[in-house]
């Protein structure tokens, strides 16, 4: 599904990704772990199409289609979803209006009829249940005054609405207490499917207790330096990243 | 020929045909105003209140009163563009069109009529109100308006009466070949504890070069309430100068909202003198410009007595090479203790070439007051744009959503659903045009 080949990217002249290779198949859950400044969030933003990040080398394809040539909205329409580490507040725009506009942009792209207000509301109510979100959140301005947990739940709600092929969860656990973490992880688990791939980017092991990966990677200094099964996450929790850092530099 | 000479000769040629030419006090006022204009001229960028608004281009066009009436389209235009369920006075190129107006069913005692008619039927009332709040000496355009006034609206709401529906003044600049200048004078008097909503709706029928120069004088008696909404949506070649001035007695409330959708030049000056304790003025504005348009809001709130409150929020979206101007002055006089006055002007620039000149001014002579003002000029939030786009919403649609939300704070301050819908549509259309860009 997703093939990343020798991806190099920089921001403000500084090279952050230095040759990332990754293959993700449908139905798989990949965890990408690593210390601060390893390039984890950069990878997520490059995949989502954030323009400040300049790709200097490499390719990214989704089902054979090159993503790097596409604008962020085109990637979303092709089925890429990134859950933001810091979801953005948009005063004056309700969650409902935002999501209906997004959903209809996708529908239009697929040549499907747009959803009317009633159909949207029915669908939204159903999807909100996945992350135990109050229906009132639909009429609030996007993320405005939301707690950290509410913001992350709102991200997963959006993912449920947009039904992506590939979801990239960027530090979805940051700023969450254990209850919120469990709700968010359960929501994501409910969205696992044989057709959907997930990339879970995280600094810590604890999210992976609930959201168990098939494959774990360690990203270090802009490269994936180790790939193993779910047990790698536990090992990292115990040993830290130091031993890998030494290995990578050797 | 310079502008003053042009208008002096236009005045000499049309004076005998203007309404009230046989009414001595008005004829005298007109001549005195013309003399003022001759000696004082039009404002220039050397005048403080016009520092950022150059009217030079407007003054090069020899605007004249309409020679022929284009009244035939007025009724259908009013039907398609006016408010539904409102009383209505229609003016085309400065001339009142009775056939297109709707005045049936007004509450007892409420006067809604045109000025030319009221000069006969309500002579004393007009004489008392005309020039009371806006003197011809205010600036050259007020003088020109006084000299050349062709008509306007007269609205009087008697004590304790609440007018059930908005009163719409639909002012149409028709698609004339010759550049038409229209000088309208509106007189609004709201008596004690009465309430009314007046919408000044300026519309261009086509893209002719036109000039609308209107003056609205408002007096609010004790406990009176006025909701005043101004919608300016003339064509891209229109010039528009509006002066709205209010005097407020004790406990009166003014709500004003001005929406400007972009013309060659559109200046709206709104002032209120808070003369009785507990008076409140709420001023809102939303403006959008593109191409080389200029849109100016100039406000002046005079807190003359204790315990009055005022609040201002003006928001602008400027595209291409357009200019936005905000001059907001609040004067708190020595006796005006316990004043609360807040003012905010926020602008979003859509291009590197758009310019905003914003000048909030507080002049405070009392010591026990709460006042603040602020101005911001920024770009659309890139983070928010990316967030919307990352969910599949196209760049243009995302920009529209964000600018609509930005202006929405002003639009949503309008309580009446029909008026809110009208303003919302006008602003949204203007935003769509500004985001598309490229119109000179």
Explain what you see:
- The complex is a heterodimer of chains A (250) and B (440).
- With 250 residues, chain A is of the alpha/beta class.
- Chain A is built from 9 helices and 12 strands.
- Chain A has helices at residues 40-48, 72-77, 95-109, 117-130, 148-162, 178-190, 206-210, 231-239, 242-249, and strands at residues 2-11, 14-24, 29-33, 54-62, 65-66, 80-83, 90-94, 141-142, 166-170, 197-202, 215-220, 223-228.
- A 6-stranded mixed β-sheet of chain A has the order 6-9-10-3-11-12, sandwiched between helices. A 4-stranded antiparallel β-sheet of chain A has the order 2-1-4-5, with helices on one face. In chain A, strands 7-8 form a two-stranded antiparallel ribbon.
- In chain A, helix 4 (117-130) packs across helix 5 and helix 5 packs parallel to helix 6.
- The radius of gyration of chain A is 18 Å and the shape is globular.
- Chain B is an alpha/beta fold and 440 residues long.
- The model of chain B has no long low-confidence stretch (mean pLDDT 95).
- In chain B, the strands form 2 sheets. A 10-stranded mixed β-sheet of chain B has the order 2-1-5-7-9-11-13-15-17-19, covered by helices on one side. Chain B has a 9-stranded mixed β-sheet with strand order 3-4-6-8-10-12-14-16-18.
- Chain B contains 10 helices and 19 strands.
- Chain B is globular.
- Chain B has helices at residues 3-14, 24-40, 56-60, 74-81, 115-121, 123-129, 140-148, 382-389, 395-411, 417-436, and strands at residues 87-92, 95-96, 111-114, 153-157, 167-173, 180-190, 195-204, 210-220, 225-233, 238-248, 253-260, 265-274, 280-289, 294-303, 309-318, 323-332, 340-349, 355-364, 370-378.
- The interface between A and B is medium-sized, with 31 and 22 residues.
């Amino acid at each position: 599904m997703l093939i990343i080949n020798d991806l190099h990217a920089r921001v403000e002249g500084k090279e952050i990704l230095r040759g990332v290779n990754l293959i993700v198949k449908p139905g798989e859950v990949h965890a990408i772990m690593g210390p601060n400044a390893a390039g984890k969030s950069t990878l997520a933003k490059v995949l989502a199409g954030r323009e400040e990040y300049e790709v200097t080398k490499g390719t990214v394809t989704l089902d054979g289609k090159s993503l790097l040539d596409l604008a962020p909205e085109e990637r979303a329409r092709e089925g890429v979803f990134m859950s933001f580490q810091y979801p953005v507040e948009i005063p004056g725009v309700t969650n409902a209006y935002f999501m209906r506009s997004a959903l209809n942009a996708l529908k239009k792209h697929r040549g499907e009829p747009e959803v009317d207000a009633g159909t949207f509301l029915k669908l939204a109510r159903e999807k909100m249940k996945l992350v135990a979100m109050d229906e009132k959140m639909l009429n609030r301005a996007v993320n405005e005054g939301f707690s950290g947990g509410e913001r992350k739940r709102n991200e997963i709600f959006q993912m449920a609405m947009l039904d992506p092929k590939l979801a990239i969860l960027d530090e979805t656990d940051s700023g969450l207490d254990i209850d919120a973490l469990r709700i968010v992880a359960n929501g994501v688990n409910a969205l696992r499917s044989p057709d959907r791939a997930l990339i879970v980017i995280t600094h810590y092991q604890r999210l992976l207790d609930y959201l168990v990966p098939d494959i774990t990677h360690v990203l270090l200094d802009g490269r994936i330096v180790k790939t193993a099964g779910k047990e790698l996450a536990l090992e990292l929790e115990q040993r830290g990243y130091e031993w890998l850092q030494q290995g990578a530099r050797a | 020929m310079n502008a003053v000479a042009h208008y002096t000769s236009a005045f000499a040629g049309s004076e005998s045909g203007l309404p009230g030419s046989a009414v001595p006090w008005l004829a005298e006022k007109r001549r005195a105003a013309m003399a003022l204009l001759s000696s004082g001229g039009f404002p220039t960028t050397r005048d403080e209140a016009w520092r950022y608004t150059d009217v030079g281009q407007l003054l090069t066009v020899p605007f004249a009163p309409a020679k022929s009436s284009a009244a035939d389209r007025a009724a259908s235009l009013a039907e398609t563009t006016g408010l539904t369920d409102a009383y209505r006075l229609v003016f085309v190129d400065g001339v009142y069109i009775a056939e297109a107006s709707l005045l049936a069913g007004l509450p007892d005692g409420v006067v809604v009529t045109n000025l030319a008619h009221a000069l006969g039927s309500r002579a004393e009332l007009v004489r008392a109100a005309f020039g009371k709040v806006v003197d011809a000496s205010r600036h050259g355009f007020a003088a020109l308006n006084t000299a050349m006034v062709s008509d306007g609206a007269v609205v009087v709401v008697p004590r304790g009466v609440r007018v059930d529906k908005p009163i719409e003044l639909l002012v149409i600049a028709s698609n004339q070949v010759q550049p038409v200048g229209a000088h309208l004078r509106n007189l609004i008097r709201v008596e004690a504890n009465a309430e009314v909503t007046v919408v000044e709706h300026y519309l261009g029928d086509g893209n002719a070069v036109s000039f609308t120069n209107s003056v609205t004088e408002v007096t609010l008696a004790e406990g009176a309430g006025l909701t005043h909404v101004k919608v300016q949506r003339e064509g891209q070649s229109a010039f528009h100068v509006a002066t709205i001035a209010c005097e407020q007695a004790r406990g009166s409330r003014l709500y004003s909202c001005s929406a400007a959708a972009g013309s060659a030049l559109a200046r709206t000056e709104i002032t209120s003198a808070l003369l009785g304790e507990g008076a409140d003025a709420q001023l809102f504005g939303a403006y959008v410009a593109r191409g080389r348009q200029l849109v100016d809001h100039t406000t002046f709130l005079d807190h003359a007595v204790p315990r009055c409150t005022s609040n201002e929020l003006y928001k602008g979206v400027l595209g291409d090479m357009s200019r936005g101007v905000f001059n907001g002055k609040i004067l708190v006089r020595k006796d005006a203790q316990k004043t609360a006055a807040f003012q905010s002007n926020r602008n979003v620039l859509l291009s590197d070439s758009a310019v905003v000149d914003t000048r909030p001014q507080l002049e405070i002579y009392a010591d026990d007051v709460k006042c603040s003002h602020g101005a911001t000029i920024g770009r659309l939030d890139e983070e928010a744009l990316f967030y919307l786009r990352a969910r599949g919403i196209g760049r243009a649609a995302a920009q529209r959503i964000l600018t609509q939300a930005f202006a929405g704070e002003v639009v949503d301050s309008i309580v009446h659903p029909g008026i809110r819908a009208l303003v919302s549509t006008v602003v949204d259309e203007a935003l769509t045009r500004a985001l598309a860009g490229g119109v000179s």
